[in-house]
Design goal:
Helices cover 41% and strands 24% of the residues. It has eight helices and 13 strands. The strands form four sheets. A five-stranded parallel beta sheet has the order 2-1-3-6-7, sandwiched between helices. Helix 6 crosses helix 8.
């Protein structure tokens, strides 16, 4: 998944970016509303983590304009305001959830997972396809009941493919979902990760098919 983190506190921003990156997410961190708008203009995100008090404006105004533009990207607001009226106002403005500062990273990760599940319309965390069973909550994958160990980036690649079986994803689309702007990515990075994932899923009925000149998709007999 690719996240946009809008937070002007350097220590908190670096900590959140590092923690979510360890989970295999691509996290673009910006410190102003202007930079957030610039990033949104050139790429899509699965989730936005939004601070309220920013150097060039109020995050609530940014959130309101984001919703007026009919953008449905989920937004979790990170706020120091704890009054019920403030939290209600954020939800009414268009926030999908909020977390009060200071917060525990485990809670932030859980709220991210919950919002992403709701967006996908999934009440359960497990995804099944052919003989594959994938649970992003526990970071577990089984092939016909046999547990397979995947690294974080391999896990995120499988999450993209298994969430939309049969759909072709181009290299550029996968690159956009798996890597942030700050990361240096070689031309064959996606091929490398696809190759690794294929080896980890060896023996499965499901397979990652290469559509020559187009991209990759997850298929099964």
């Amino acid at each position: 998944m690719r996240f946009l983190l809008v937070e002007d506190n350097g220590d908190l921003g670096r900590s959140v970016q590092k923690r979510l990156s360890l989970d295999g997410h691509a996290v673009d961190w910006v410190q102003s509303i202007t930079d957030a708008k610039d990033h949104l203009a050139i790429t899509g995100y699965d989730l936005i983590l939004l601070d309220i008090m920013l150097p060039d404006g109020d995050g609530r105004g940014f959130l309101a304009s984001h919703r007026r533009a009919q953008r449905d990207t989920p937004v979790i607001v990170m706020t120091a305001r704890s009054a019920v009226s403030d939290r209600v106002a954020l939800l009414d403005t268009g926030a999908d959830d909020y977390i009060t500062k200071p917060f525990d990273f485990a809670e932030l990760e859980a709220r991210c997972r919950a919002v992403l599940r709701r967006r996908g319309g999934a009440a359960q965390t497990q995804i099944h396809y052919a003989d594959l069973s994938f649970d992003p909550l526990s970071a577990s994958v089984t092939v016909a009941g046999d547990a397979r160990e995947l690294r974080n980036r391999e896990m995120r690649l499988l999450e993209i493919l298994i969430s939309t079986p049969g759909r072709i994803h181009s290299k550029s689309q996968l690159c956009d979902r798996l890597f942030s702007f700050a990361e240096t990515v070689s031309d064959n990075a996606i091929e490398v990760y696809v190759g690794r994932l294929r080896k980890k899923l060896a023996g499965s009925e499901a397979r990652i098919e290469t559509v020559r000149g187009v991209g990759y998709r997850l298929t099964a007999p």
